[in-house]
Amino acid sequence: MSMDLDPDEVFRDDEDDPESEFYKERDATKELLVYLVDASPKMFSTTCPTDDEKTATHFQLSINCIAQSLRTQIINRSYDEVAICFFNTREKKNLQDLSGVYVFNVPEREDLDRPTARLIKEFDRIEERFDKEIGSKYGIVPGSRENSLYNALWVAQALLRKGSAKIADKRMLLFTNEDDPFGNLKGVIKVDMMRTTLQRAKDAQDLGIAIELLPLSRPDDEFNVSLFYTDLLGLEGDDLAQFKALVGERFEDLKDQLRKRMFKKRRVRRLRFVIFNGLSIELNTYALIRPTNPGTITWLDSMTNLPLTTERSFICADTAAIIQEPVKRFQSYKNENVMFSVDELSEVKRVSTGHLRLLGFKPLSCLKDYHNLKPATFAFPSDEEMIGSTCLFVALHRSMVRLKRFAVAFYGNSSHPQLVALVAQDEITTPSGQVEPPGMHLIYLPYSDDIRHVEELHTDPNSVPHATDDQIKKASALVRRIDLKDFSVCQFANPALQRHYAVLQALALDEDEMPEIKDETLPDEEGMARPGIVKALEEFKLSVYGENYEEDDAKTDGKAEPSRKRKANAMKEYSNYDWSDLADNGKLKDLTVVELKYYLAAHNIPVTGKKEALISRILTHMGK
Amino acid sequence: MARNKEAVVLVIDVGPSMHSVLPEIEKVCSLLIQKKLIFSRYDEVGFVLFGTADTKNELTEEVGGYEHVTVLRNIKVVDEDLVDALQNLPRGNIPGDFLDAIVVGMDMLIKKFGQTNKGKKRLCLITNAISPIKDPFEGTKGDQVNTIATQMAAQGMKMDCVIVRMKQDLETNMRVMKENDVLLSVFSNKSSSKVVYVENPTSLLGALRTRNISPVTIYRGDFEISSQLKIKVWVYKKTSEEKFPTLKKYSEKAPPTDKFATHEIKVDYEYKSIEDPNKVVPPEQRIKGFRYGPQVVPISSAEWEAVKFNPEKSVKLLGFTDASNIMRHYYLKDVNIFIAEPGNKMAILALSALARAMKEMNKVAIVRCVWRQGQGNVVVGVLTPSVSDEDNTPDSFYFNILPFAEDVREFQFPSFSNLPSSMQPNEKQQEAADKLVQMLDLAPTGKQEILPPDFTTNPVLERYYRYLDLKSKHPDAAVPPLDETLRKITEPDVELLSRNKSIIEEFRRSFELKENPKLKKSTRRIMKERPSGSDGEGEEFDKDADAKAIDSIGYSSKDKVEKIGDINPVKDFEEMMSRRDNPRWISKAIQDMKNKTFDLVENSCEGDTYDKALECLVALRRGCILEQEPKQFNDFLCHLYKFCQEKDLRSFCQYLASHGMNLITKTEAPDSEIPEHEARSFMVKPEPDSQNVESEAKAEDDIMSIFLGGK
């Protein structure tokens, strides 16, 4: 912890910083995850069409998704540990030396461990190496007592014995397209092998390990979960009803579904939603959207590349004495220091009882586009503690969706009490699964203190122009032309982040070449050059700017004037110096910053920065 | 005059009809002064009351008229006394003439600053504007207001009018009120004035801007529709959180006699090597390391500059899309506003045309923005049109940042329609919910919206500044409770609730909520978070849960097994092992069971306890496999075996062997270091077998090492 201290960050007041708590998810538990991938010939023979008229196998699909999730994980949750384990393999590699099971790993890493750059890199190449090094083979065949599924569960369980079940969340994710693994067997052997396998699964579950199944299937060949896996997973009633096989006409659909199901939901917190005094329901909140930032900086000793510990000390400005963490704070006010204890400050912030308190409802039109400060939080009801919560929530949710209204509530958390809008979101599904889950989004509303009235700066008593009907018509035509039909939020990867991690990965693996990252956020130049769009653009331009767009563009009555004047002045002053001579004799440093800027301004070079920066910029420009 | 320094004249109506809201006006005005004292120490303030019995202003002396307008304070730099003065406004007894008061305020500003300080001179008028203004000597009231507004604009003055009309005011003279409203609207049309109406004290607190932050553009330049068409825009922040003030840490070290002590604390950082904690590493020897999984990759700043993502400063359109494609909850951060470059008529028209077209078609624009050169990242966001109703305000766009693919977590949730019927509301319940959502209305038609964000002040900040002032007078004062007006922000409106009493009762009756009896009490404790001042009715739930939580910590565990007794040790052991309230029960159970077994063996008389000891061992063995603690059992069995060999209890070893008791093998528990064949040989062959000396010796070794290691 102390290692990550960065002076810039610490200057913010720790207990007054609501951001830290808000953006940091609760990491009470870490996740230990074993991917169990069926590598039987059936996984290789079943295919689904991809976009580029090729086909992909279920096996490719599975490893593709795992590769992707490893990438996400190393960025977002690198403390989670992961193991990749194939079963129904020709070769075996596992601690128990059981046949048909191959635990994939790379050097400098335990089998179940945090993902590393090397793991990601080598796993990307697994497909080309698979047949040679690991191989595919049916593991449960008549006439043999081998049971590869049993072995796989066993190996996975043994991997997961690391760490206590109380602090770690343990999961196995089983990828298979075989709904009846013992279908080839008969009689006592079949019964016996099924029984032992189920017992193995049950033992694992008793140890607090969750087994999840990602059943791959084709539209014409449904995965029948009741043949075997209902028992293995212990599915009953509602769980069974909700259990659906992953089916997709296209590879992309399947991949989408698979990716979504691989995530484990992490609750941010449990909330009490007070409808009225004495009537509260229980909600779980989730952070579905949070900005991902490049990880924190760790300071290293440049000599040894070993991490440094940061020690913070408090020094009295008056006496230079070192003091313990002070408990009192003060604000200068009316020429004196008004003192507050930390308790008093937190009491000031405690303006409400209860977590989330309903105040009333408003039509959705009252929620303006500028009523926003930070990412929304998703709320879903839970009956875990209060039976009946879900029913009440669903009723309110339906009414709010139907009546197009949102709820206003006061969220009285201790660090940052705030008004929130609860916006009911109806479920949206597509063939590739759920796109928007049903529930309510908590949108944090600004206070009047947080809203700025910028428009007023631009008011003009003599009235400002508004577009004519013709101009609006031309604009409409343009808007219609440049239409992003299938736009979905988050279709772009963050180029800065991708670059950041690509560079890190290359450096971590000592690669010389820096990877190129495609910036998906750039406009589609080609598309914009289509004649229809160009025509609409020209018509709009003509309608607003008339024939003289270029001239008008250059001439603006606002700020351009003074800066041009400044430039002219700089040009005048510039000629008073013999710059080359000054530079050669190292006398640039004797000039003032203002004088140095004459040179920079005259040559249209940026004029910002410290004196040294200015000088070096001038020298660079002179080529010296 | 400093760049952001402003001069404000507060013009406050203290006439009889205003008395009921004066306490709130006192609060909001003193907050304005307080914030100036803290954040803009050199701002200047004057203040004028009207509706007073007395008259005191320069205009009345110079030209006559302007009665019942009192200049309480001429324009000067804010000072401490002003806060107190504003907290005790005198009550007037004459219905005031707001126009007279405005003119007096303007006169003060003109006399003090003349033509200078354009845009930094502000009048704040607070009145209910229900009393008629006097007829002018010549022309109409309208003409007069026109002249004044034009003059105001010419002088570069702004005016904020807060018109406070409570319910009772609305029943008075409608004709006068309408007339006044029309006159006031002239100000907002002809000058840089804003008129807001508030209907309740809570909104009043939010209606007056108490802090003067001059907006700064975050971008000025082209909005590129394409390479052929670029519109000049300015981008500002539209929302930005006003944070709780950062208080300085207080040092008590300075002697009390030191009058000049700052009492401030400096924070100093030292970087120390992890190998040698005594070695301080100078800051310039540090290098930044970035985490990548478990690795930390060192990169110098220069290196990083060379490889980092470095997009060009620009704002580019990606395209337009249906507004319905962008869900409201995707808005990621605070909001910006795009306005055309001022004075650039073409740019204003171009934005206006786009905004109006998009609004008509219900479209939004997706744009990619790099605000500054060298900012190192891009943002993709959505522009939503904001079409102005006013002639003097240009059309603009709000800009919200959208998430990237990395920022979204696609958690899956069950469909409501798939929920079991017990979780689905029935018709009656749905009806009750419909009524509630409709009737518990915070935006009733024809009335003002309750708690609109634009007029709702931050209760925490409000409370802090009041407490600050209180503490400056009484250093030991406790935090006063939230007052009635601020409580309206954090709690439902009592009046609204009582108006809808029957609907609420119906709703209560329709839904049955009960605590889950099956839930383990301990988990209930975990989710508890104690809200403050829990004395409300709504806290029953909490208190209840609390009491139970305390209960669960251990006072009521009579029914739970805490030790292994003599009567049924196996059952006690199993129950203890299955306790999940605390992980230590498992180790306690194992330890107790070992002791129990040992006692049984040690105290046996001619094998009378062997069967019971075996039962215990079997249970212990099963438990240790289940909990993945094979070493615990294996060590114990070795220990027991050795003990029996030494104490002449070999018969017990034979008894165990005959009942197939052996060590836990690697196959049974992966943690075990005992291969299968060695486990079996352990009990069966107490004497070294000549043929198997080597393996036996090895097994012996293993056992010994386990034994020693276990100690």
UniProtKB/TrEMBL annotation, chain A:
Reading the lineage from the top rank, the first entry is: Eukaryota
For this protein, the record's Gene3D superfamilies field holds: 1.10.1600.10, 2.40.290.10, Ku70, bridge and pillars, SAP domain, von Willebrand factor, type A domain
Q: Where in the cell is it found?
A: Nucleus
Check the record and name the CDD domains matching this protein: KU70, vWA_ku
The region called Disordered is annotated at 1-21
Q: Which GO terms describe its cellular component?
A: Ku70:Ku80 complex
This protein's UniProt keywords:
ATP-binding, DNA damage, DNA recombination, DNA repair, DNA-binding, Helicase, Hydrolase, Nucleotide-binding, Nucleus
**Biased-composition ranges for Acidic residues?**
1-20
The SAP domain extends over: 588-622
**EC top class, as a word:** hydrolase
Q: Which family does the entry's similarity section mention?
A: Belongs to the ku70 family.
Q: What is this protein called?
A: ATP-dependent DNA helicase 2 subunit KU70
Write down the species: Nicotiana sylvestris
Species classification: Eukaryota, Viridiplantae, Streptophyta, Embryophyta, Tracheophyta
TrEMBL record, chain B:
Occurrences of domain Ku (ranges): 278-419
Give the CC-aspect GO terms. Ku70:Ku80 complex
Q: Where is this region: Disordered?
A: 522-543
Q: Does the keyword Isomerase apply?
A: no
One annotated GO molecular function is: ATP hydrolysis activity
Q: Which domain of life is it from?
A: Eukaryota
Tell me which CDD domains the record gives. Answer: KU80 (cd00873)
Reaction catalysed?
ATP + H2O = ADP + phosphate + H(+)
Cellular compartment(s): Nucleus
This chain's protein is named ATP-dependent DNA helicase 2 subunit KU80
